Structure prediction request, 732 residues.
Amino acid sequence: MSQARPTHDPAAAAAAEEQRRETLARLLEESKQIRGNSLWSDAWRRLRRRRAAMASLIGLIVLVILALLTPLLPLQSPIDKDLKNRRLLPPEWGAMTMGSREGLGFAEGSLVAELRRFDAEIDELRRQRGELSDPAERSAMDEKIRQRTRVEHPFNQLWNKLGPVSHLMCRLRVSLFGDYAIPSIFGTDKLGRDLLARVFWGARVSLLVGVVATLVSLVIGVSYGATAGYVGGLVDAVMMRIVDILYSIPFIFVVIFLITFLGEDNVKVWLQDRGIEQITIFYFVIGAIYWLTMSRVVRGQVLSLRNEQFIEAARTVGASTWRIVFRHLVPNVLGVVIVYLTLTIPAVMLFEAFLSFLGLGVAPPDVSWGQLLNDGVEALSSVRLYWWVVVFPGAALAATLFALNFLGDGVRDALDPKMKNRD
Amino acid sequence: MRNLVGYLIRRVGWMLLTLWIVYTVSFVLMRSVPGNPFSSERTVPAAIERQLRARYNLDAPVHRQYFDIGWGIVSRGDLGWSLRLEDYSVNQVLAEGFPVSASLAIFGLVFAIGLGIPAGIISAVRRGSFADLSMMTAAVLGIAVPNFVLASIVILLFVFILPIFPAAGWGTLQQLVLPAFCLGAPVAAYIARLTRAGMLEVLTREHVRTAMAKGLSPQAVVLKHVLPGAMLPVVSYLGPATAGVLTGSLVLEKIFAIPGMGSHFINAALQRDYFLAMGMVLTYTVLLFVMNSIVDISYAVIDPRVKLQ
Prediction:
């Protein structure tokens, strides 16, 4: 109240001012000491107390790391067939040497030696190129070198379409482990390929489909739902009617129908000409059918949020609709979105496995878990008991889905405000 | 009653709209594939191809075809001819496959309900007990293990290791057991969880306490006062459950070599039999719509608070 009374003493005024500043500084300091319990830290604390969910989380993180590092691990080749000696071998512990199969024609029956030979050959070509003076001959030589590294590289016989990063990782693996490869502890499949390596490489595809398709569904669902909920009125009514109609279409059947067309030779050529891979479309198609529930959930949340004061404040300040939706509304519905996300990933992975199992999904030489299971079930119907071709990929898929479901349940409970005081 | 008629009329309207959209999308896709159904196989003489095109009405202008095929479906229920199965119309394929798939689906659902509801009741009543824990773990497993993985495990166990059941085929009750089990298992798991959650919620209500207080036996309380209330989420789940069973039968019919609609649909998709695939999609749309409507109506019958809309 001292400020209210006008004072004529400049020293007293300065002192009062100083005191006020001190008070403010102290308050600021105090407020810094207090750590608020945000929704997220609360949820994290609750999640950490759930053993099953935490174990699932850790397991999934390990799985993702292993899948990322697959080219670096000393696994056998996932695509190299050995029809003569290694068909449908039961799990075994005999150590393997990379590149030892005769049919590969590797120098000294070893990947390291072959790689050395190949590098020497390329170096020789490079040296010859250095001696050339004619630029036309030079570029012809460049082209030859590029062709040879692309087509004849020994890695091409052991791995399918390595990207630049995976290629480097494979190189590193060869220099780290040499020719050593983990024995076929999961057995081999009907074409003599190592099942352990195939399960690992399949994990990459299956997880990638799960994540990419879920992200696609996330982007579509959140934008659609948030727009419908925020704009409201006729737009909302029309948009939600569309969702209603889409809901009643049996999408799985429509997708299978759609894949019928994507498999058509002419369409394949058309897509290849435009540099689109079939698997990319596959991701998008799956993602495009899982956004419906997401958009409904987000719309409901946005509807209840749009009349809150902070939205009104943003509008008063003059923020655009776009900005309000994506800066103010979307972060507030994040909790619900995350819950739904953790439940969408297993659904999407299951769907991918389902389609690949039917022979409509990921096509060889790419591997995915669904496809491995398809191979496995085919091998099952024969006379002898090849249990390993089904049990290992099946266990991998089931364990992953199990963990994802558990984590999803845990996250849902952790983010549910009703659960706040229950434990 | 008036309510119900209005509801049914609206539902049929929506169904027709949906069917029209599905038909249009399918038609556009079919026509946008380069070439025609006869150009992909070995080449036939030009005159014969012309005849074939005329027979299948492929020489008419596109809008004419769209209208003609659509009219054929609406007026005669004629879904066209299969392009891959010799001498079969799509309707014949459906007529042969539908009873097989339907009985498989019904057995699967009956099995799911018969297993899921008792499991849910027991684990809710004996909450925290060993039975509860093991059944709920089994339920999570049932949801997580895809039914084609389950099918292969079951074949491994009960066909090869313990030869009790035949591996594949259709016709006898024995051949039905394994596919129906695999089809129903994930649904049973969901139903068990829903029943348990519903039961636990209703068990804390006042009317249950009253029932207990006036001295009813625990069985009577559970069966008469708790169960009906707890069944609502289960009933509303039956719509998606039907969809799940129909989808699941796609794979299971393939694994167990059952000559139902699902295996025909997969073959149609793999062999690019457009007419058959389109007919199947339309049939599945109708099936799901009908099932969902039945579920909605029964929901309203069970719970008087729910209004059909």
